[in-house]
Amino acid sequence: MTADFLAALAANLLSPAVLFFALGIVAALLRSDLRFPDALYTALTIYLLTAIGFKGGVAIHEAGWRTVIGPALAATLLGAAVPLWVYPLLRFGGRLRAVDAAAVAAHYGSVSAVTFIAATNYLKGIGVPYESYATAFLAVMESPAIIVGVLLGKLSLERGEGVSGPSVRQLLHEALAGRSVVLLVGALLVGALSGRVGMDKVEPFFVTPFQGVLALFLLEMGTVAGARLGDLKKVGPFLAGFGVVMPLLHGALGVLLGKFVGLGEGGATLLGVLAASASYIAAPAAIRLALPEASPALYLTASLAITFPFNLTVGIPAYYGFAHYLFR
Hints:
The chain is built from 15 helices and no strands.
């Protein structure tokens, strides 16, 4: 078991995606002038979200909605539930302000699309099949935790902690109509309606260049994460440990839930990866609008500088290792 895990870990660390991410971190540490224009970063994000949503929709078309609905509902409930136990842990164990605990909880209940993509690449690399409609889990887990986390933060406003922000209606609109949610869900519906015939028409654009675009995106994310490494001293030892331990616990829970709802070894691994991931695209945008007094140094550093690199390098092989053990 240990030898298999170490071999899988080495294979993951030497994948182009992870190596480009490491290159970005090195560039940031060297204070290189390597920077992606904002327009290019936005374009890469739009491409990746649209591609994974569309491919997931095609997979749903082929598998049938009846096959997908049960696991997708379980994934939705898991995403909504995570902030409910993360919040009190951060509030009373980590002694964070209520608004900061709510903001971090929203990030850790929501999901990372790039971590999910890296996990699918990892499973393909080691020859493990998975349910191709698993992208649906990514789409349905994006928003529920953000909504729950923000509502927890709004409750602190009612208790007189001085947190200001928009109305519940506005924050719901931000969480449900944000770019990442619209692209994921919209592209998923397009793929589900057009099916394989539609995929054949756009495959040269959405499939062939995908890995290269992912490498560029992770290069950029490496520079961003590297620039935030100096903020680690600001988050404190509790939050630093939280950013590693909590993904492991959530990853194991996701794998167990995947097995319970009938997913295979690969599909359960992907649900574990999603449960273990933390959002750094959709959640920060919603939190900045809804809870402006929450500290970005806490929620961004925890999700982007701690949990994201951990999952990308060590976490993904660990969640697969647990799934492999559980199914065997």
